[in-house]
């Protein structure tokens, strides 16, 4: 418990200074990839749809879950995007975010609300989206998301789909038990991790590093 708490504290500190470089190295094994996450927050009524603590919690949860699998995440960039992106309803609203993606990072867009495109009127907590016009892949996170939604969406980003198995990361069914991924999912996540690194699209930025 103590170890867990001190690790969380470390991540909170890092996330809180996401906009200011440089920072201290974390205790990440040097041979394991650290994927940079760029956050774009849509403005809503003149203010960011969600504050930095909310965002830091999402990233911290994801890093804590994937870390033991040898995949780490670091918040490297934060920017704000226009109010017109605060409410995502139709496919074109999602695709419009592609204009704001950054290079060699995992882009996460934080918006106020995210409507399902197949079931209008139903609101989603998050989605891993590929913009067909551009081929860009990114994650959209609703401001209504609970803290582990980014972790689930990163599962999609790293190539794993939904399952019905209760408490699996990729299942909607939660019993209160420990959330897990099975061996086949781990293999796939690690395969995609290697692929991202090999293509250079999402390079290992490794700690410590200068920021944008
Ligand atoms: Zn999903």
- Element-by-element helix/strand order: HEEHEEHEEEEHH
Named CATH architecture = 3-Layer(aba) Sandwich
Overall form: globular
Cα-atom radius of gyration: 16 Å
Ligands and ions found: zinc ion
Return the average pLDDT rounded to an integer: 84
Q: Count the E strands.
A: 8
Describe, in plain words, how this protein is organized in 3D.
This protein is an alpha/beta fold and 212 residues long. It has one domain (9-14, 33-199): Collagenase (Catalytic Domain). It has 5 helices and 8 strands. The strands form 2 sheets. Strands 1, 2, 3, 5, 7 and 8 form a 6-stranded mixed β-sheet that branches. It has a two-stranded parallel sheet with strand order 4-6. Helix 1 crosses helix 2 (52-66) and helix 2 crosses helix 4 (149-157). The chain is globular and about 40 Å long. Zinc ion binds next to helix 4.
Task: Give the structure's gist in a few sentences.
This protein has 212 residues and is an alpha/beta fold.
Structural topology:
Elements: H1 2-16, E1 34-44, E2 47-48, H2 52-66, E3 72-81, E4 87-88, H3 91-96, E5 106-111, E6 113-114, E7 126-130, E8 137-142, H4 149-157, H5 183-199
Parallel strand pairs: 1-3, 1-5, 4-6, 5-8
Antiparallel strand pairs: 1-2, 7-8
Helix pairs in contact: 1-2, 2-4
The structure holds zinc ion.
Zinc ion (ZN) is lined by residues 152, 156, 162.
